[in-house]
Design brief:
- The protein contains four helices and five strands; from the N terminus they run ααβββαβαβ.
- By secondary structure, it is an alpha/beta fold.
- The chain has a domain of 70 residues: 2-Layer Sandwich (Nucleotidyltransferase, domain 5).
- A five-stranded mixed beta sheet has the order 3-2-1-4-5.
- β4, α4 and β5 form a beta-alpha-beta unit.
- The longest helix has 21 residues.
- The radius of gyration is 35 Å and the shape is elongated.
């Protein structure tokens, strides 16, 4: 029987998966992990003392500044004059961590009033100023 004849008579498709390359790859990965595992540990073994302290995260105060339709400014629902607002903002700017200021402006308030509050916040040195809005479609 010739070599060409052997392939001509074999019309069946080979349906078995050759597992040899897969086993080779798995063995190489296993060897890599065996070598790498000791390197992941610390080089110097020490017995660290135990402590019950927990990391304390101090969350900054949140100041809510509201400007109503007539231009009056409220500090957490307390009516403020422009001078009193500037004084309280300067005091708040010296706190560590600095408070976050959430500015709420009535939709019908004149732009000038909101800008004056924003300017007072920036002049006081407060870094975090955000605007609060109502989600679209809410009926308030």
């Amino acid at each position: 029987m010739s070599f060409d004849n052997a392939y001509e008579n074999n019309d069946e498709v080979m349906s078995e998966i050759n597992m040899t390359p897969l086993v080779d790859v798995m063995l190489v990965l296993l060897i890599i992990f065996i070598i790498a595992m000791p390197l992941l540990n610390d080089a110097i073994k020490i017995d660290l003392p135990k402590a019950d302290n927990q990391a304390s995260k101090i969350s900054p105060e949140t100041i809510s500044l509201s400007v109503n339709q007539s231009g009056q400014v409220f500090w957490n629902k307390q009516l403020m004059t422009q001078d009193a607002l500037q004084q309280r903002l300067k005091i708040a700017a010296q706190q560590q961590p600095q408070p976050e200021v959430h500015l709420r402006g009535d939709r019908h308030v004149e732009y000038e009033y909101v800008i004056s509050v924003m300017t007072a916040v920036r002049h006081a040195g407060i870094q975090k100023l955000g605007f609060v809005t109502e989600p679209a479609g809410s009926n308030k």
